[in-house]
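Subject: Sanity check before I submit

Could someone independently write out the structure tokens for this chain? I want to compare against mine line by line before I put it in a report. The sequence has 181 residues.
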Amino acid sequence: MKKKLLFWFIVGILAVPALMFQSCDKAEELTKIDVNYDAPDVPLTLSLSGGQKATIVVTSQMITANVDSLLKAHNLDVVDNIKAKAMQLLVDDPADANFDFMESATVKLLVEGKEDIVVANTGSIQPGVKNIDLVVADLNSVKDYVGAGGFQLQLEVVTKSELPADPLKLILKHQYQITIK
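---
Independent answer below. Compare away.
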């Protein structure tokens, strides 16, 4: 009888800390907030001098994600993670242009001192479309890029025919999921 009692006492002592740590993890998860951050639209201009098939690379101006204001708004102080959630490329000008000229496109995140990373690409492009929902790369985190203060987006376009207008103005929309705690 004493052996059984001793056995259950030891199991109880070992089980309580395990349950406590599990509860702490659950409590930490409850304090995390996921916020969708719609970053400012990025205007990009494509220009192609001669030739039908070419690669055009354009880089945005410096972009800053105002993560500090999100933290203050929710009275929190730590960014746990930032993930690219959605990106969309739209024809801005001329209004009647579409993406029939485009074979493919890739979007990269650029931060000085860090390796460029691909965050999205076009996937298949349907004929006659004026906007493309880009396929966002399955990256664990872009926190070191978007949360670094300032970053740039670079669009690399491979054409299959002439541009519908030269210059062709595009808008790149980008959204991030920021996990804060």
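---
OP: Matches mine. For the report I'm noting this point. The chain is about 20% helix and 40% strand.
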